Amino acid sequence: MICPVDRQPMLAIEYDAIEIDYCPHCEGIWLDAGELELLLKDDGTEQAPLLSQLQRLKKSKERSYKCPRCTLRMQKVFSSYLPSVVFDACPENDGFWFDKGELKAIVSSSNHTAARDVLVNFLQNIFHGPASLKEQNHAD
Ligand SMILES: [Zn+2]
Ligand SMILES: [Zn+2]
C-alpha 104: how far from its chain's center? Predict the structure, then answer.
């Protein structure tokens, strides 16, 4: 897949049954529809509250990107659970695009320890290799 921001090829990485498309150039992340849900799901039972509260941002100064799947222009969305993080959603519901740090901010704000671990491990593996996992601080 091609990065919607800088047109660089992205890396598709499967991690814990979730496929994450990652752009090493801008450090953005694409998640297909359902993958964010998988990441944030609480014991696989109910929909993550964050996702049930998605709203469309009417006006944004942020640059808008085209969906890497269908090339339609994506919409800026946010969750009322975390209004400070604005990300991009395909109008055809192909998935979500997160600029550098946005997905991390969302996952860190949630109570989903499992999702945090998945993402932290994933990001650390990419950036620093498995060795740095030892430095990870497991508070619980
Ligand atoms: Zn990129
Ligand atoms: Zn699309």
Answer: 7
Nearest ligand to residue 99 Cα: 1
Reported as a single tens digit per residue, the pLDDT across 74-89 is 999 998 888 899 999 9
Find the 87 Cα to ligand 1 centroid distance in Å. 14
Query: Of the ligands numbered here, which is closest to the C-alpha atom of 92?
Result: 2
Starting from the CA of residue 74, give the closest ligand: 2
> Can you tell me whether residue 24 is helix, strand or coil?
coil
User: In this predicted model, what pLDDT tens digit does every residue of 48-61 receive, in sequence order?
Assistant: 667 777 899 888 88
Instruction: Give residue limits of the domains in the chain.
Output: 11-127
Residues 125 and 127: their CA atoms lie apart, in Å, by 6
Going from the Cα of 106 to the center of ligand 1, the distance in angstroms, rounded, reads: 19
Please, which residues bridge with residue 2 across strands?
Answer: 9
